[in-house]
């Protein structure tokens, strides 16, 4: 069931998925059934949507084929399809029951092309994000679609005039204008959109004066004003998610300290503050579950106070020091995600966290100064599933009374650990064997100047490993040939293993066809694997074809020498 859903993208049952897969088997198959228009018109919307998705994914969809889906399909996602242009939209505009149309990143969709969508009566959602050729003229066509509830036009060519034209779409609940450089004047024109719940206006030219009109949106729950000059927001009591990244923040509640906003998600990456404690004093502590303060200059975490319901905390690239970790420990009971990467935390700071984050599933300490002494404290975080220790001082061992003790063994206490990143550390071959006994481990990334063949061989017994990154290590041709991969392995990344030869990689791929191998030589190997029919003239090909027909059970030994392959 899971694989079927993944393949179809719409949760189809295995039988339905197989039928859809067969129908999208190739151009000849499509040509065979496309003439059965009446049957296709009666196809349930869910199945029609799934079939069209599969055709699009396999690049089997073309404009005239769209016509057979006009009476059945309700949702279409053609995002990123470069071929989509005015001809495609001419067919799409005739769809009778279309509710969702996604054309993000379709570079050939322009203002004249969207004329075909004018007046569509069933369309609820339209995504034209990053269609750079959409201008104010195109929006005038879109403004005639009165049924629209969601409109995405981020990073298009709109100006103030185009934004003001959107004001006629009074049923809008979501409006994404990210990256469109409009001014306060245009924002004021949107006050009539009183049903707006989601407003994305990052990168615009609005100021505090323009932001004051946001109070007109009495149902607004999501607001993104990152990369703007806004420093102070009016009181928005319904707001639950706020993004003010790369802003200078003085107040999110118009300076009213008696008012508490029930924010659930706050993203303020790379923001600066007038008074950070005053900013956070406007938030109801118990409501906040998601806080992203990555790249913030502040080293003060006192404001965390009573935010005991926090589940996601990103402090990467910040100036926090080890002493501030105590504030995290005090509110760590419900924490599930914590990133301290690129910060000044040390191994001793993690001692404070040990035992205080029982629900933590993801921890990133990449680019920090922690060493092997931290592993014991990390092992006391029982729910960890994802651990990033890349570019740290981890060596995999410690010296105790002149005796070398393998430190990675401590992580065996983490019964649920699925992903471990040890890239760009100081690991050596003899510290790798303990990793093979991590029973839940599925994703492992190892890169060090000191890892070679024995390290790879030690992982043969890693019983659940699916993805192994062994990039940039000193792996020899012989070492790869002798490697017996775990039965579960599906991805082996050997990028940067410069000693390997194309023959060794090719031989490994032949012996283990279910494993996808990544290496710089793979593309070259695929390029060299040409169509061997080009070695023969037309007459020789006809003769070979005749021989094949006359002896359907032809043995390998009967093949011409040029076509024989070594076993």
Name the features.
alpha/beta, 19 helices, disordered N terminus, disordered C terminus
Account of the protein in words:
Among the domains are: 1-73, no CATH class; 532-563. The chain has a 19-stranded parallel β-sheet. The chain is of the alpha/beta class and 567 residues long. It has 19 helices and 23 strands. Helix 1 runs parallel beside helix 2 (14-23) and helix 2 (14-23) crosses helix 5 (45-57).
Q: Give the count of helical stretches.
A: 19
Cα gyration radius (Å): 29 Å
Oligomeric assembly? single chain
Task: Decide which structural class fits the backbone.
Answer: alpha/beta
Mean of all residue-level pLDDT scores: 90
Q: Largest sheet, if any?
A: 19 strands, parallel
Keywords: Repeat
Region (Disordered): 547-567
Organism: Oryza meridionalis
Domain Disease resistance R13L4/SHOC-2-like LRR: 89-366
Quick recap of the structure?
By secondary structure, the protein is α/β, with parallel strands linked by helices. Helices cover 24% and strands 13% of the residues. The protein is built from 19 helices and 23 strands.
Topology:
Blueprint: H1 2-8, H2 14-23, H3 27-33, H4 37-41, H5 45-57, E1 75-77, H6 86-92, E2 100-102, E3 125-127, H7 136-142, E4 150-152, H8 160-165, E5 174-176, H9 184-189, E6 198-200, H10 208-211, E7 222-224, E8 241-243, E9 248-249, E10 265-267, E11 272-273, H11 276-280, E12 290-292, E13 312-314, H12 325-330, E14 337-339, H13 347-353, E15 362-364, H14 374-378, E16 386-388, E17 397-400, E18 403-406, E19 419-423, E20 443-447, H15 453-457, E21 467-469, H16 477-482, E22 491-493, H17 502-511, E23 516-518, H18 520-528, H19 538-550
Parallel strand pairs: 1-2, 2-3, 3-4, 4-5, 5-6, 6-7, 7-8, 8-10, 9-11, 10-12, 12-13, 13-14, 14-15, 15-16, 16-19, 19-20, 20-21, 21-22, 22-23
Antiparallel strand pairs: 17-18
Helix pairs in contact: 1-2, 2-5
């Amino acid at each position: 069931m899971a694989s079927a859903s993944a393949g179809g993208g719409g949760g189809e049952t295995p039988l339905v998925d197989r039928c859809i897969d067969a129908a999208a088997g190739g151009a000849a198959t499509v040509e065979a059934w496309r003439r059965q228009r009446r049957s296709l018109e009666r196809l349930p919307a869910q199945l029609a949507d799934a079939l069209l998705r599969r055709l699009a994914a396999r690049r089997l969809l073309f404009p005239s084929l769209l016509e057979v889906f006009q009476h059945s399909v309700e949702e279409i996602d053609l995002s990123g399809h470069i071929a989509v242009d005015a001809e495609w939209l001419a067919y799409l505009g005739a769809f009778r029951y279309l509710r969702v149309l996604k054309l993000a990143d379709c570079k050939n969709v322009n203002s004249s092309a969207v004329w075909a969508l004018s007046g569509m009566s069933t369309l609820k959602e339209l995504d034209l994000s990053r269609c750079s050729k959409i201008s104010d003229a195109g929006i005038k066509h879109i403004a005639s679609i009165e049924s629209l509830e969601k409109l995405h036009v981020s990073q298009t060519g709109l100006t103030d005039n185009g934004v003001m034209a959107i004001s006629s779409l009074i049923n809008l609940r979501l409006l994404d204008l990210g990256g469109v450089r409009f001014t306060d004047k245009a924002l004021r024109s949107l006050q009539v959109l009183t049903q707006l719940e989601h407003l994305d206006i990052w990168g615009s030219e609005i100021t505090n004066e323009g932001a004051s009109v946001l109070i007109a949106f009495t149902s607004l729950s999501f607001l993104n004003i990152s990369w703007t000059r806004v420093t102070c927001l009016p009181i928005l009591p319904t707001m639950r998610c706020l993004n003010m990244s790369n802003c200078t923040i003085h107040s999110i509640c118009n300076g009213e300290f008696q008012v508490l906003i029930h924010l659930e998600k706050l993203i303020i990456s790379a923001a600066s503050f007038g008074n950070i404690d005053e900013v956070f004093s406007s938030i109801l502590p118990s409501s906040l579950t998601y806080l992203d303060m990555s790249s913030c200059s502040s080293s003060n975490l006192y404001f965390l106070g009573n935010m005991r319901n926090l589940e996601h905390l990103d402090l990467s690239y910040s100036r926090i020091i080890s002493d501030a970790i105590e504030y995290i420990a005090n509110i760590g009971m419900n924490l599930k995600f914590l990133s301290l990467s690129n910060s000044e935390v040390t191994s001793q700071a993690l001692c404070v966290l040990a035992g205080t984050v029982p629900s933590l599933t993801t921890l990133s300490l990449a680019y920090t100064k922690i060493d092997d002494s931290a592993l014991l404290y990390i092992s006391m975080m029982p729910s960890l599933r994802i651990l990033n220790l890349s570019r740290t001082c981890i060596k995999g061992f410690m010296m105790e009374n002149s005796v070398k003790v393998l430190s990675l063994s401590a992580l065996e206490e983490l019964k649920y650990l699925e992903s471990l990143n040890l890239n760009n550390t100081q690991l050596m071959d003899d510290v790798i064997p303990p990793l093979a006994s991590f029973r839940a481990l599925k994703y492992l990334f190892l890169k060090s100047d000191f890892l070679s063949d024995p390290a790879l061989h030690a992982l043969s017994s890693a019983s659940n490993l699916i993805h192994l990154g062994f990039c940039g290590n000193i792996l020899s041709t012989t070492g790869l040939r002798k490697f017996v991969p775990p039965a579960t392995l599906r991805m082996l990344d050997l990028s940067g293993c410069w000693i390997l030869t194309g023959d060794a990689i090719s031989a490994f791929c032949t012996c283990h066809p279910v494993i996808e191998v990544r290496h710089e030589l793979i593309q070259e190997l695929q390029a060299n694997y040409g169509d061997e029919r080009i070695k023969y003239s037309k007459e020789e090909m006809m003769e070979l074809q005749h021989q094949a027909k006359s002896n359907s059970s032809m043995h390998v030994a009967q093949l011409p020498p040029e076509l024989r392959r070594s076993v």
